[in-house]
Amino acid sequence: MWSFRTSTDMSIVEPEFVTIIRANVYSALSEDMGNGDLTAQLVPENTLGHATVITRQHAVICGKSWFDMCFKVLDPNCTVTWFVRDGSKAAPNEKLCELHGNARALLTGERAALNFLQTLSATATLTHEFVEAIKGFQAKIMDTRKTIPSLRLAQKYAVKIGGGHNHRMGLFDGMLIKENHIAAAGGISEALKQAFILAPEGATVQIEVENMDELSEALDAGAKLILLDNFKLEGMKEAVKFTARRAELEASGGINIETVRSIAETGIDRISIGALTKNISAVDLSMRFV
Q1: CATH 3.90.1170.20 correct for 15-131+280-289
Q2: Is 229 considered catalytic here?
Q3: Among candidates 56, 65, 77, which has minimal Cα distance to 11?
Q4: Which CATH superfamily is domain 135-278 in?
Q5: Is residue 89 flagged as an active site residue?
Q6: In the annotation, is 208 catalytic?
Q7: The one catalytic residue among 37, 94, 143, 208
Q8: Catalytic option among 32, 210, 217, 229
Q9: pLDDT tens figures, 15-44
Q10: Strand intervals (E) in 132-267
């Protein structure tokens, strides 16, 4: 099962994470470069360059390791000096880092590096907004599997940096029994019975319910993690009272920054929001040669 260290500093990461970051970077550079960077040939091959990166808006910064690796694979001698860490709140026009290295490498890696940094910072920033919106309540802000293809680990890391929590990483580390699974398996009780038998050690088992009758059946069948699908506020309050801490309850479906606090006020345990990773607006960053 995948999990991140509690540290918000990705300068020290587990080896498998480094492997995935490297794969992300190689894929991005290959997509951008093809057989080579035609425009970078305007610069003499051994010219050294110095550049700075700033943000043009308020943001929670995230993605340093992806950014750094974009340049390191092109120029192993490139140095990136950061003035912020992952999780730092940056203000408009704040300098984030300075780069020194081969000028061609800096020019070639610029777009891919900024793409990672602006995308992951966007997820971290949006997550932070949701976390702040429910401050003082017990509910956790959770992500989903609605991520950019091939950036699952990166975006889930960004959610953690923004103060949120990770749902299952994928289909392999947890069961989420939804409406179609329930129908195919023969009902809520039968689906849960089989899930408890089949789930490997450490894997979560969660079931989706759409009304109070289904919630009652799920609880009677031993469910400990239940997703309330598109429940209205009054329904959530009723579900929280009825469950009486026998299981963790998660709200899901159409949740936005305007509604999230009222949902947290119901006493719900978890709030899952697909928008954290799919409805993001890239942070405005700028890299300039000095």
Answers
A1: yes
A2: yes
A3: 65
A4: Aldolase class I (3.20.20.70)
A5: no
A6: yes
A7: 208
A8: 229
A9: 778 999 999 999 999 999 999 999 999 999
A10: 140-142, 174-177, 204-209, 225-229, 248-252
